[in-house]
């Protein structure tokens, strides 16, 4: 019996769902379904065997040689280093001292630190674990409402999925064929709106249930408080400039910025943990100051030698610092653990990419892209019906798949349809940016709801025994609702994404003039060579 061509795409989806329900790893399930239906389609005559040669061609041509995807291990490694170096502790302590006396102050400090760490690390695990280890015992001691405490910690950790330089935004930019810089610019509006929404909810609870969010007494005042805040904020600001500033100004690609951020994270770990002498600190501080001065001279005067001198001085200071800290055993252990975590995540991403390639090639061969386009374009409600259905679909998938799997499987199928449907609303260049940021806001919920709410798992693994698992799960519900409200806001107000993007240059074709000039007459006095 020959299966009709129009049945093949839905059957491929059904087969993938069956494999995932059984419990096979997603990467191998994707490859198995792709190859099974691929050889079945060859037998039915829908395409020939040479068509399957596109799989190794795409793996080696579009994946392994993709420089943008190299940013993933750099940002993962940077996040793993920062998780252990003490930056989160200093930031939480300084923000806690600053906002503690305010009712709900620990909640405000957690949200702000989550936002800042999200702009540095790009990893959920590092944020949730670090913030929970430091802040949750204090919240327990001062009798914060446990459902609020666990919810704000988990939600603040997931902020990193939306705040640049989020790994989700990098992957979405790659899958949608848009620049990472534009994706970052589009994500800033929703990122700020989300922080406002979280703080507004905290303020509301502090008014309605004041006993649930009590103030915490401050132990530092005056100059000591300022020094504590500066020591927590200034290193973070420097790293944010290295990572995001260079990308936004077009001075570095995401991979180059990730490499600089990784070096900065290692330096920060050394400065905070190595037993350095006063001369070491003076030499390193002088090197950093000289590098910053040279960098800004190069930026203002556009002199390449200034950039080269700046990075040379910085490199010399880093080498000196790392040489002095080479014998510190804990710092070697820290770097080895970071390498191991980076290798695990990078290998997972690579296998999912290969499996998704096997699935998508076969899916295109059986006209799956046309099936998806017809299915989505025939939805009632036009643009808004498409957006509602897609977001409900992604929200449902997030119960079973993580963001890498959703990005590599679903986004390439929906991107052409989204471009065609959303272009009349926000323009050609901004359509997929709006669509990608909206999906990024939606995918945040995958870390907050069962059964694969990884932020909840991370929180449970480090929470004190007196914190009940039921409080962790029930406490996540209001924050998931807030994230869904964010999805609605991004859909209803596209300007929240497109406002920061560069305006599209529109050309009136009726006013275009083409001036054709005759070539200059031949100079008879010019010498003729024969």
* Number of extended strands: 0
Classification by helices and strands:
mainly alpha
Strand content: under 5%
- Measured as a percent range, the helix fraction is over 70%
What does the model show?
This protein is mostly helical and 530 residues long. The chain has a domain of 50 residues. Helix content is 73%, strand content 0%. It contains 23 helices and no strands. Helix 5 packs across helix 11. The longest helix is centred in the middle third of the chain and has 37 residues. The C terminus is likely disordered.
Keywords:
530 residues; disordered C terminus; mainly alpha
Gist of the model:
This protein has 530 residues and is mainly alpha-helical. It has 23 helices and no strands.
Topology, pairings included?
Layout: H1 8-22, H2 26-44, H3 54-63, H4 71-85, H5 87-99, H6 105-118, H7 124-141, H8 146-158, H9 167-176, H10 180-208, H11 222-248, H12 254-273, H13 278-301, H14 304-324, H15 329-365, H16 368-377, H17 382-397, H18 403-409, H19 411-426, H20 428-443, H21 454-462, H22 469-492, H23 495-498
């Amino acid at each position: 019996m020959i299966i009709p061509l129009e049945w093949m795409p839905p059957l491929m989806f059904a087969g993938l769902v069956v494999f995932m329900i059984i419990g096979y790893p997603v990467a191998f399930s994707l490859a198995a379904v792709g190859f099974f239906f691929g050889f079945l389609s060859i037998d039915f005559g829908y395409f020939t065997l040479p068509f399957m040669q596109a799989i190794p061609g795409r793996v080696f041509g579009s994946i392994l040689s993709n420089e943008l995807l190299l940013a993933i291990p750099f940002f993962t490694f940077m996040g793993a280093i920062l998780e252990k170096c003490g930056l989160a502790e200093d930031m939480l302590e300084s923000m806690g001292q600053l906002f503690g006396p305010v009712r709900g102050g620990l909640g405000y400090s957690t949200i702000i630190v989550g936002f800042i760490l999200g702009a540095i690390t790009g990893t959920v695990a590092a944020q949730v674990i670090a913030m929970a280890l430091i802040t949750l015992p204090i919240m327990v001691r001062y009798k914060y409402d446990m459902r609020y405490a666990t919810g704000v910690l988990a939600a603040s950790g997931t902020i990193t999925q939306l705040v640049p330089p989020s790994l989700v935004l990098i992957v979405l930019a790659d899958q949608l064929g848009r620049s990472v810089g534009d994706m970052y610019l589009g994500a800033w509006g929703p990122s700020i709106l989300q922080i406002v929404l979280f703080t507004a909810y905290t303020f509301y609870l502090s008014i309605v249930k004041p006993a649930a969010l009590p103030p915490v007494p401050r132990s530092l005042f005056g100059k000591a408080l300022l020094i504590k805040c500066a020591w927590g904020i200034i290193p973070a600001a420097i790293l944010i400039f290295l990572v995001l500033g260079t990308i936004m100004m077009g001075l570095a690609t995401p991979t180059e910025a990730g490499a600089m951020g990784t070096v900065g994270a290692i330096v920060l770990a050394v400065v905070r943990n190595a037993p350095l002498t006063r001369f070491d600190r003076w030499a390193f501080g002088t090197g950093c100051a000289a590098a910053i001065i040279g960098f800004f001279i190069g930026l203002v005067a556009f002199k390449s030698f200034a950039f080269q001198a700046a990075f040379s001085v910085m490199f010399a200071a880093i080498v000196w610092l790392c040489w002095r800290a080479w014998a510190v055993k804990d710092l070697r252990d820290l770097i080895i653990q970071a390498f191991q975590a980076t290798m695990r995540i990078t290998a997972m991403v690579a296998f999912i990419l290969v499996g998704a390639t096997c699935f998508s090639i076969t899916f295109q061969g059986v006209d799956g892209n046309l099936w998806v386009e017809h299915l989505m374009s025939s939805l009632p409600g036009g643009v808004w019906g498409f957006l509602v259905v897609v977001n409900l679909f992604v929200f449902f998938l997030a119960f079973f798949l993580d963001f890498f799997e959703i990005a590599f499987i679903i986004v390439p199928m929906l991107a052409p349809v989204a471009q065609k449907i959303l272009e009349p609303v926000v323009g050609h260049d901004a359509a997929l940016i709006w669509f990608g940021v909206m999906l990024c806001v939606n995918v945040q919920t995958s870390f907050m709801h069962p059964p694969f709410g990884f932020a909840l798992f991370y929180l449970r693994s480090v929470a004190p025994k007196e914190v009940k698992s039921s409080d962790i799960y029930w406490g996540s519900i209001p924050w998931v609702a807030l994230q869904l409200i964010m999805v609605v806001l991004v859909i209803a107000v596209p300007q929240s994404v497109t406002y920061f993007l560069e305006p599209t240059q529109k050309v009136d074709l009726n006013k275009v003039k083409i001036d054709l000039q005759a070539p200059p007459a031949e100079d008879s006095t010019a010498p003729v060579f024969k």
